[in-house]
Amino acid sequence: MAAKITYTIQKELGDLSIAPNGWKKQLTYTSWNNREEKFDLRSWNEDHTAMTKGITLTKEEALKLRDILNEIDFDEL
């Protein structure tokens, strides 16, 4: 039996996309299993009761990702 996962979305930071079925790919600031909040990127249904697999980032990792994205020439790719 899988352990129950708990989460509390502290803040919805932004939507990256919305699928035709209403699911949103979102960046949120979320606490998982009553741990310290992290930046979280995944798709959620409309009422945040179901989710896809996603990734979590610490503040330091999010800042590093921001720096990497700022250095990419997206027109080149």
TrEMBL record:
Alphabetized Pfam families for the sequence: PC4
GO biological-process terms attached to the record: regulation of DNA-templated transcription
One GO MF term attached to the UniProt entry: DNA binding
InterPro entries attached to this UniProt entry: PC4_C (IPR003173)
Ranges for domain Transcriptional coactivator p15 (PC4) C-terminal: 21-68
Designated name of the protein: Transcriptional coactivator p15 (PC4) C-terminal domain-containing protein
Originating species: Dialister hominis
